[in-house]
Amino acid sequence: MPIIAEAQETYLRMREKLKDVVPDVELQYKAELVFEINRLKRQRGAVILGHNYMEPALYHTVPDFKGDSLELSRRAAETSGDPIVFCGVRFMAETAKILNPEKTVLLPSQEAGCSLAGSITAEDVRQLKRRYPGVPVVTYVNTYADVKAESDVCCTSGNAAAVVESLKTDTVIFLPDEYLAKNVARETGKHVIFPLKDTSGLRSADASLDYAMIGWHGKCEVHDKFSVGDIKRVRQQFPDVAILAHPECPPEVVAASDFSGSTSAMIKYVETTRASRYLLLTECSMGDNIAAENPGKEMLRLCSVRCPHMNQITLEDTLNALKHNRYIIEVPEDIRVRAKRAVDRMLKIG
Ligand code: SF4
């Protein structure tokens, strides 16, 4: 097919899917970028992984695989494409590199960090291990490679409770998301404490010894913004709304919602239930992506909450990543090997 006709076809496909969520003038421009990215991707034998929080015009067009952290970790382990272009944030691209040391892993923007991953260092984990010797360490995948390397096993929001229970120990160190720790503690019937950090090191926040989970004060700056007040206001106006909260939301928000699960679990919930309308308490591009996939379902928006890190990944950057082979993710081999052990153990649990 001639190039112009192919580019036009790309635009028409995008318009069909995205006409309700992306303005047409933007679609025309983005279709050209999408066309060029897909052409270069084929030429280079690359594979593109797209997180559920990518903007709709990227999410629905260029990724070979889409999903949450866990699904993308699995895909990263299985993929035959090289380079791997990770449309997500740095810790996710690092996980792809941990699982694919021989491949080139590209992150389209150097600014795509994460408030949770940035909340804890490898030295913090070492201090906790000294403070609580012998206690296994579970770290959320939203951490950097050197933190994973200090851990016994990783988890995602989708399998956190299963990972904690698989350890069959009385006590676990669970890092770094405070709210996820509280939500998992509630689900698994454990009591959670948060050691305080000061200049002299770590102090226990709680003198009693009945704790079963030792957490950390990390937070996702996006999910931290939702409140029970938001839920009350929406329910007043729409009593029949089904409210879905991500487990990184505060525990009282999760408790006041109808469903809580990973981004992929939320997608499945919307696809398989028949509520009159849905409200997703999570990153707002994901709401747009689900709306585009489910045109017959009404999605309410509280959409001032876009992750500033995920937002760094644009179609322009993705094209430049393929054109200029940037930005290459490197993980030192000794850290990679230890981090892989924790990631592999998580992948086996499911
Ligand atoms: S949504 Fe939250 S956890 Fe995810 S990348 Fe953004 S800041 Fe990190």
Largest beta sheet: what is the strand line-up?
6-5-7-11-8
Strand content: 5-15%
Q: Average pLDDT value?
A: 91
Give the biggest beta sheet: 5 strands, parallel
In one word, what is the shape?
A: globular
- Helical element count? 15
Cα distance, first to last residue? 43 Å
How would you characterize this protein structure?
The structure is a single chain. The chain has 350 residues and is an alpha/beta fold. Helices cover 45% and strands 14% of the residues. The strands form 4 sheets. The protein has a 5-stranded parallel sheet with strand order 6-5-7-11-8, with helices on both faces. The chain is globular, with a radius of gyration of 21 Å.
List keywords for this structure.
4-stranded parallel sheet, alpha/beta, single chain, 45% helix, 5-stranded parallel sheet, 350 residues, binds iron/sulfur cluster, 14% strand
